[in-house]
Specification:
By secondary structure, the chain is mainly alpha-helical. It has one domain. The chain has five helices and no strands. Helix 2 packs antiparallel against helix 5. It is elongated and about 90 Å long. The two termini are about 25 Å apart.
């Protein structure tokens, strides 16, 4: 096993680096927030606004809306989002390090020549 690793060390490091970079960028673009609302979201917001106007504004002002999720759930979601961001950053950094290390050539000693 040790001989196989020594023989294919450069290929292993380049493959691992490339895979980690691809995973890092894929995660980054997957979890990045959407800048633009889709047409379906705009249509859903318009429908909700029309339904609220049909129901009347007097009933909605008298009732106090409860938060949809507790503070604990919000903190959990924020913690998970930060963990994914850190994992993405670490994946990209390790991928770049593996790729960089695979391209560094070590000087040959007299015994190897």
């Amino acid at each position: 096993m040790k001989e196989i690793f020594k023989k294919y060390k450069i290929i292993i490091f380049r493959t691992a680096g490339a895979v980690m970079l691809v995973v890092g960028f894929a995660l980054y673009f997957w979890i990045s927030p959407k800048e633009v609302a889709t047409q379906n979201e705009i249509a859903a917001a318009n429908v909700a606004r029309m339904e609220a106007s049909v129901r009347g504004s007097s009933s909605s002002t008298n009732q106090r809306q409860e938060p949809s999720s507790s503070k604990f759930v919000e903190e959990l979601k924020n913690a998970q989002k930060k963990q994914i961001q850190y994992m993405t950053i670490l994946s990209m950094v390790f991928g770049a390090v593996f790729l960089g290390y695979s391209f560094i050539s070590k000087p040959k000693s007299d015994s190897e020549i």
